[in-house]
Protein backbone atom coordinates (compact mmCIF):
# COMPACT_ATOMS: atom_id res chain seq x y z
CA UNK A 1 0.00 0.00 0.00
CA UNK A 2 1.33 3.41 -0.88
CA UNK A 3 1.94 6.10 1.71
CA UNK A 4 -0.57 8.44 0.04
CA UNK A 5 -3.30 5.82 0.21
CA UNK A 6 -2.51 5.13 3.85
CA UNK A 7 -2.63 8.84 4.61
CA UNK A 8 -5.99 9.15 2.89
CA UNK A 9 -7.40 6.17 4.80
CA UNK A 10 -6.02 7.59 8.03
CA UNK A 11 -7.56 11.01 7.32
CA UNK A 12 -10.87 9.38 6.39
CA UNK A 13 -10.85 7.30 9.58
CA UNK A 14 -9.88 10.34 11.64
CA UNK A 15 -12.69 12.33 10.05
CA UNK A 16 -15.22 9.57 10.87
CA UNK A 17 -13.98 9.42 14.46
CA UNK A 18 -14.23 13.21 14.69
CA UNK A 19 -17.82 13.16 13.33
CA UNK A 20 -18.76 10.37 15.73
CA UNK A 21 -17.31 12.33 18.65
CA UNK A 22 -19.22 15.42 17.52
CA UNK A 23 -22.47 13.43 17.43
CA UNK A 24 -21.68 11.94 20.82
CA UNK A 25 -20.99 15.41 22.25
CA UNK A 26 -24.25 16.76 20.81
CA UNK A 27 -26.13 13.77 22.21
CA UNK A 28 -24.59 14.27 25.63
CA UNK A 29 -25.49 17.98 25.64
CA UNK A 30 -29.06 17.12 24.63
CA UNK A 31 -29.28 14.45 27.31
CA UNK A 32 -27.86 16.83 29.90
CA UNK A 33 -30.50 19.41 28.97
CA UNK A 34 -33.27 16.84 29.28
CA UNK A 35 -31.95 15.67 32.64
CA UNK A 36 -31.96 19.28 33.88
CA UNK A 37 -35.51 19.72 32.57
CA UNK A 38 -36.61 16.54 34.30
CA UNK A 39 -34.95 17.72 37.51
CA UNK A 40 -36.80 21.05 37.31
CA UNK A 41 -40.07 19.22 36.63
CA UNK A 42 -39.48 16.91 39.61
CA UNK A 43 -38.79 19.95 41.80
CA UNK A 44 -41.98 21.63 40.57
CA UNK A 45 -44.00 18.45 41.15
CA UNK A 46 -42.66 18.15 44.70
CA UNK A 47 -43.59 21.79 45.36
CA UNK A 48 -47.07 21.22 43.94
CA UNK A 49 -47.49 18.14 46.13
CA UNK A 50 -46.49 20.16 49.22
CA UNK A 51 -48.90 22.93 48.22
CA UNK A 52 -51.68 20.40 47.60
CA UNK A 53 -51.11 18.83 51.02
CA UNK A 54 -51.18 22.26 52.70
CA UNK A 55 -54.37 23.19 50.85
CA UNK A 56 -55.97 19.86 51.78
CA UNK A 57 -55.15 20.51 55.45
CA UNK A 58 -56.54 24.04 55.22
CA UNK A 59 -59.68 22.73 53.51
CA UNK A 60 -60.11 20.20 56.31
CA UNK A 61 -59.83 22.89 58.96
CA UNK A 62 -62.20 25.23 57.11
CA UNK A 63 -64.72 22.44 56.52
CA UNK A 64 -64.61 21.51 60.20
CA UNK A 65 -65.15 25.14 61.19
CA UNK A 66 -68.01 25.51 58.68
CA UNK A 67 -69.70 22.39 60.08
CA UNK A 68 -69.33 23.77 63.60
CA UNK A 69 -70.83 27.11 62.49
CA UNK A 70 -73.71 25.30 60.76
CA UNK A 71 -74.49 23.40 63.96
CA UNK A 72 -74.33 26.64 65.95
CA UNK A 73 -76.62 28.40 63.46
CA UNK A 74 -79.07 25.50 63.62
CA UNK A 75 -79.12 25.68 67.41
CA UNK A 76 -79.66 29.47 67.34
CA UNK A 77 -82.46 28.99 64.83
CA UNK A 78 -84.18 26.45 67.08
CA UNK A 79 -83.86 28.77 70.07
CA UNK A 80 -85.30 31.69 68.08
CA UNK A 81 -88.27 29.57 66.98
CA UNK A 82 -88.87 28.52 70.60
CA UNK A 83 -88.58 32.13 71.82
CA UNK A 84 -91.02 33.34 69.12
CA UNK A 85 -93.46 30.58 70.04
CA UNK A 86 -93.25 31.60 73.70
CA UNK A 87 -93.77 35.27 72.81
CA UNK A 88 -96.79 34.35 70.67
CA UNK A 89 -98.12 32.18 73.45
CA UNK A 90 -97.78 35.00 75.97
CA UNK A 91 -99.41 37.46 73.53
CA UNK A 92 -102.25 35.04 72.91
CA UNK A 93 -102.81 34.67 76.67
CA UNK A 94 -102.80 38.45 77.12
CA UNK A 95 -105.15 38.87 74.18
CA UNK A 96 -107.58 36.26 75.52
CA UNK A 97 -107.71 37.68 79.00
User: What about the largest sheet?
Assistant: none
Beta content comes to under 5%
Write down how many β-strands occur, each being a DSSP E stretch of 2 or more residues.
0
Span between termini: 139 Å
Low-confidence stretches: none
Class inferred from helices and paired strands: mainly alpha
What's the helical proportion of residues?
over 70%
Instruction: Kindly provide the radius of gyration, computed on alpha-carbon positions and rounded to a whole number of angstroms.
Output: 41 Å
Tell me the overall shape: rod-shaped
Question: Average pLDDT value?
Answer: 94
H/E series: H
**Helix segment tally:** 1
Q: What features would you highlight for this structure?
A:
rod-shaped; 97 residues; mainly alpha
Give structural notes.
By secondary structure, this protein is mostly helical. Helices cover 97% and strands 0% of the residues. It has one helix at residues 3-96. The protein has one helix and no strands.
Provide a short characterization of the protein structure.
This protein is 97% helix and 0% strand. By secondary structure, it is mainly α.
Which secondary structure elements does this structure contain, and how are they paired or packed?
Layout: H1 3-96
Amino acid sequence: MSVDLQDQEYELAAKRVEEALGKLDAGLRSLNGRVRSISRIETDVAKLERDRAALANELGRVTQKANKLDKGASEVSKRLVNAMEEVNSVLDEKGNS
